[in-house]
Amino acid sequence: MDERYVPQNIEPRWQKAWTEQGAFTAGKQPGKPKFYVLEMFPYPSGSLHMGNLRCYVMGDVIARHLRQKGHDVLHPMGFDALGLPAENAALKDGVPPPERTPKNIANARRQMDRMGLSYEWDREVATYRPDYYRWNQWFFLRMWERGVVYRRQSSVNWCPSCNTVLANEQVEDGKCWRCGSTVVTREIPEWAFRITNYAEDLLQGLNELTWPERILGAQRNWIGKSVGAEVEFAYAGTDEDPNARGQALRVFTTRVDTIYGATYAVIAAEHPLVAQQFGKGKREGEVAAFVQKMRATDKTERTAEGAPKEGVFTGHYVKNPFTGERIPLWIANFVLAEYGTGAVMSVPGHDQRDFDFAKKYGLPIKIVIHPAGRSDGEAYVAALHKEGKAFTEDGVLANSKDMTGKGSAEAREQLAERAQAGDFGKKTVKYHLRDWGFSRQRYWGTPIPVIYCEKDGPVAVPDDQLPVTLPPWEKITMKMTGTAPLRTVPEFMNVKCPRCGGPAQRDGETMDTFVDSAWYYARFLSAKNDKVAVERKEADRWLPIDLYIGGPEHAVGHLLYFRFWNRVMKEMGLVGVAEPAKRLLTQGIVYKDGAKMSKSKGNTVDPDTLVDTYGADTARVFLMFAGPPEKDLEWSDKGVEGASRFLARVYRVGAMHAERIKGAATPSSMAGLTGADEMVRRAAHRTLKKVGEDLSGGASGIDYQFNTAIAALMELTNTLYEAGAAEAQPKVSDGVLKEALTLTSQMLAPVAPHLAEEMWNALGGKGLVALADWPKFDADAVAAQSITYAVQVSGKLRGEVQVAVDAGEDAVKAAAQAEPNVQRHLEGKSIKKVVFVKGRLINFVAV
Ligand code: ANZ
Q: pLDDT at position 482, please?
């Protein structure tokens, strides 16, 4: 080792050694237990910053530690390289996405390598390459065959003067951000995945996963299972003609127990019956205007919880099947067309939205539920109503004919059964989860492999013509997003129908980039295979991912999509398990100067500068030491310096003594060790035990404690300095020092891998420390040592007790009082005072 710690001299050397020796190649130890650790792959924007790198360093520490523990570790990395940012950047600076992306990837890879991340680059996957996205197209076709992919009409924001689809953020106050025209809702065809078919299975599967509770909760919510009933309300004419005929209305309710209080019904503006029937009659104009207004307002906005309730009476009535009453039918903004049946029975007494709406429009409010166990139940609910609040809890039924007096749960069962028996309803389960529409009017994505022929309709591109590759960016004439850019390239669009050979057109849209990330983890297993997307034998060896690491912001996006995709792959026989990732670790955010570290805030810390100044090991130690993995952390230059000082202190001991002690015989037990030797060996083995535990994920398997592992290593370093290890003549003997330093290099190897290699090598270690077995701690050295206390009663020696070295006064006192001879002398007396001399004696002053 050089005298001075200059990480820039050490780090590239070991990075080269790792690569040359294929140190991180998975599959070399088929007999060993496998471990697949994966960090969410990044989008390759210009360069990575330290905020991005936290997650990768975490994964790397775990991957490295598992290799030490004898696992066959798979730790791949790739790039989520398609998507809008590259397109937007191209509009600004003219660099086409296909040119920019590989450059960005090369730079990100260089930065990752400089950080010493132990990736197996032979498996790299970059989603912009046709050899990747051809499999997106292949999956699309297989899923289309299976009915998992289908075509549907979907409403989008449409600017009639730009002739283009607008994203939600391109609509400002209902106007187009570009030209200011009023935006309308338009139905256009799109492709969608039938993820809703998997709703129940996706919900049940959550029970098998070791994921953070809040992510599981978010997915449960998002899937949103609701057990309820569908009930039919017969048509009951209009205000002019009560005998007019018409179609019945089906509503979905989770509270059929409140049905005696349903005083009006409401449907969504997009409900098909509006166009067919309920939009007709005397109020036709009013209804049409309201529907038009709804269509022009953003859906999420108008259905948001706090949004003012708005509606219009249709002039039509339906009949409450349980009370027989004619109730008015309204159209309102808070009912969603896509959920349930797109129609609700309104119970203003017991639902807040219905209550607010009834107040606003003067509709009747009935009390049909009151709290159980109160004599003044109805008065209580009436008082709530006066305050403007509905009573929304379960309770006891009131004013509900023969159901009066029954509990909500029982009434729900019985009323649903009656509806079913009378053939006007049934119990149902609904999910809030929606199908995943994935057509995008964008360039930098996977072209959809479908050809439209006037005669044959939509036809699949034959497998042997895959991939359908993107035309050059330069050919696109309308590059602004919203207009499917591929449609402006005739050479791309105009093709022959694969079936009849007649003139036909390609789809022209591209896939949502969440498609790319929905299965990349499986492609790593067969990254170079151009015959199949995923080889079954590789899938059986490696899946599921044992530990997945990434940001909690993906809770209901990517983390749901990849669970869906894996299920489809299982049905296709490509993989054997339903769940793609058994454990999930979500990392906290890195802040700097009070804001999330990000390019847009301009508060990033560049890894290159950091590595140039302090070295990668320092950057890694800082990131792992600054706090527990799932907690947010504040960037601190002081903290970085602290990490650097710590490593320099370790290095100094190695540099001073390694050469001299590398041949020394190391002790194999505590036998005969005293003084500094005993202190150092005990400290080294205790630290070894602690670090091993902290890096293993705890009982849950996701409870990693990198920060306390590093704290323990810092303490060990202090002990070494106490034993004179940074002096020319240490108090500790060569053999003990050699063992302690060797263990230190092994313990540092996951976090500060370069310094660890340097030290391991200097101490004569064989091969790479990265691949050396994790050492076993010596139980004797770790065992709590005991010590003897003299026990006195009023100054006279009455016994002795053995206690742990670090036992405090209370523990010693308890042990002493349990001694029979001491007990005898204390009998009948009361203790006035206890004198405690740490490490020596305890004296009970008793009279
Ligand atoms: C009557 C009722 C009375 C309701 C009551 C609630 C309380 P979740 O739990 O989310 O499934 N609903 C049904 N379809 C709807 C739609 N398309 N848009 C908006 N709201 C809809 O909620 C189900 C409840 O939300 C249903 O139960 C219905 O109102 C409403 F005291 O029916 B309820």
A: 67
